[in-house]
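User: Please fill in residues for this 441-position structure.
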């Protein structure tokens, strides 16, 4: 984790080409029409995802009665990235990103929409939930990465942190409104299964709205790419692109260290919502409405974190900030584990989710400012491939731990690991650098 760039973060290398946006540099970001439309497409999908975040575990538990199998279904949303994650960056850097975003939304309409459709005809099965979760997860992972990789094309360099904070705020708002709305929608059903199917139907409609917003984005969402050398095969092109991204990450000490830290954090944060639903039902005796409140509290934490992120980024260096966030995350997990009632558990969820939001904003802003546009998709996809590996393993493992040990020991374990991680990184980063600070990779 040794620093290989100047200690002054303003010295991070500039993008190779200015964004091809009609936005006037220096103007307020909310007047940037293309950014707003790109952001609104994410807001629509995030709101629907907030509803299905409640509907999915409720539906899985109602159909299976098993936290372990429900955990595996939840893990299928991140598993696809393990299979194709390294190749998604090649796609994002080579194809029209706006068309790619639209295609991802269409895939989510088909997968998520199949759930209520199958329920109407009495044909809903567990294997279908696995498939729908897999497709939705693959499309969501690809869309999120394509959207983030597009940000430097529609905003100025000094607004990247603000733009990502907007992204994270939309996720937080959706997590506040989504579960509350989801609880209302699920409550309309005569059974939990019926209500969850209604929630999936609502989620489907939000992806349709997202497509409408994306079709109005005028800015080209990637810089012109240099042509490939003549005679190079497609397979060689793909693996050359992946290798270039891996070498870039490996040579950058900061990005390499953040990626390792992020792997552990995401393995603990991946199953947060699912584990919270199990704890609320099994340990706190919460009903569907109260489960929605608990998930909504996590959204409040995300919104607060997003509002604080630009200020924190201006006043604190990246690594000390990441260490502080990890300690806060450990405290959030501990509060959830020890919660005697719903209110304390909600506070723990707000802290843990706020920490998750800050991790994303700080690390993504750092990467977007550092990585050249031609490498954005590939480097970010490699980075996220590692993160999604942690999320998938963590979610699957949490499902089995919840079944064998229960929700409170699961959260205590997460708190202990997160505390150990924060302490380890703090000690490593406090060592004198073995490479002069002014040396670049």
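Assistant: Residues filled in for all 441 positions:
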């Amino acid at each position: 984790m040794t620093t290989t760039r100047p200690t002054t973060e303003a010295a991070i290398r500039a993008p190779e080409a200015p964004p091809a946006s009609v936005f006037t540099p220096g103007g307020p970001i909310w007047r940037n029409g293309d950014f707003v439309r790109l952001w609104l497409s994410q807001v629509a999908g995030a709101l629907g995802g907030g509803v299905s975040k409640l509907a999915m575990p409720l539906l899985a538990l109602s159909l299976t009665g098993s936290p372990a199998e429900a955990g595996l279904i939840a893990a299928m949303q991140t598993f696809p990235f393990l299979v194709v994650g390294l190749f998604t960056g090649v796609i994002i850097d080579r194809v029209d990103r706006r068309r790619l975003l639209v295609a991802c939304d269409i895939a989510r309409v088909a997968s998520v929409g199949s759930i209520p459709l199958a329920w109407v005809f009495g044909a809903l099965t567990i294997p279908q939930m696995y498939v729908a979760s897999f497709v939705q997860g693959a499309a969501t992972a690809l869309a999120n990465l394509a959207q983030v990789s597009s940000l430097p094309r529609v905003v100025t360099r000094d607004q990247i942190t603000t733009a990502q904070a907007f992204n994270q705020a939309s996720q937080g708002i959706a997590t506040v409104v989504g579960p509350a709305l989801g609880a209302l929608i699920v409550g309309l059903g005569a059974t939990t299964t019926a209500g969850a199917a209604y929630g999936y139907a609502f989620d489907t409609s939000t992806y349709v709205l997202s497509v409408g917003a994306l079709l109005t984005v005028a800015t080209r969402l990637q810089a012109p790419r240099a042509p490939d050398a003549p005679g190079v095969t497609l397979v060689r092109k793909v693996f050359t692109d992946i290798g270039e991204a891996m070498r870039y990450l490996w040579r950058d000490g900061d990005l390499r260290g953040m990626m390792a830290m992020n792997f552990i954090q995401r393995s603990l944060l991946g199953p947060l919502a699912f584990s919270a639903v199990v704890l609320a039902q099994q340990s706190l005796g919460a009903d569907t409405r109260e489960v929605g409140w608990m998930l909504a509290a996590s959204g409040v934490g995300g919104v607060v974190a997003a509002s604080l992120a630009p200020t924190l980024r201006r006043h604190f260096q990246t690594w000390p900030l990441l260490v502080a966030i990890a300690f806060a995350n450990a405290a959030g997990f501990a509060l959830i584990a020890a919660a005697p009632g719903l209110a304390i558990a909600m506070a723990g969820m707000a802290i843990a989710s706020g920490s998750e939001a800050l991790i994303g904003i700080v690390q993504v802003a750092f990467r977007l400012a550092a990585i050249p546009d031609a490498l954005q998709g590939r480097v970010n996809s490699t980075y996220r491939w590692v993160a999604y590996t942690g999320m998938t393993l963590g979610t699957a493992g949490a499902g089995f731990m919840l079944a064998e040990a229960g929700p409170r020991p699961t959260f205590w374990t997460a708190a202990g690991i997160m505390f150990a991680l924060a302490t380890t990184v703090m000690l490593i980063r406090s060592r004198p650098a073995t490479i002069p600070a002014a040396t670049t990779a």
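For context: The CA atoms of residues 165 and 307 lie 7 Å apart.
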